[in-house]
Every structure is written in C-alpha cells, then in structure tokens.
Amino acid sequence: MSRDARRMPRRTLAQPLDVVDTMNEHCVGSILNLSVSGMLLIASRPLVEEALYQFRFDLPDGDGEPVEVGGHVLWLDDASAPGQSWVGLRFLGLAPETTRRLREWIEQDPSDC
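Structure (tokenized):
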C-alpha cells in the first residue's frame, strides 16, 4: 500500500489544465495535480529551478474566473518527451479567496465536476 506523505491533499486532474505565464502570456505547460500549496506541472517550455513565476489557469469548476498564483520552482526533471520536463512548484502568497477556492475544488468529489 502506498502512502502519500505530503502535508496538503492533492487532486490529480482527469484532464490536464493549461498554465499561462502571465509575464509573457505564453502557455508553459499543463497541471497534472494540484494542492493548496503547489502543483505538479508538465512543462513544454524551459523553466528555471529556484526561479519565481506568476501563473494563470482556469479550474474546471464552472466559476469562469481564472486562478492567478505566484510559484517557486522547487525541482525539475526531464520528461520522456523531448522538450518537456516535470516541474514541482510551491505557491507563494495566495490571496485568501484563491486559497478558499482551491481548497473547495480539491476537496470536491471528482464525480461532481
């Protein structure tokens, strides 16, 4: 039996969510799993370890309001596809409303989406 040792619950997405770098409006990749404290991203553009980014993405919650987060790249690892990498990010300074919205979506039963 596998036990997840993370402090915050994560939700694996049924469909990857595209992520936009708000500084240049480029899509940088897709979220594979998400928590209130961070995300796992499969990046299609180069990102820099230990760098800070500002990202935007839409949750499939019907709200229509994009989520904006500051992210700190904790680690990078090459993916099997050329030009892609796995990226672990920690969120920084989330607004209380963003934290609430993420928490509600993560805790929601995936069959309700």
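The longest strand covers residues 67-78. The radius of gyration is 14 Å.
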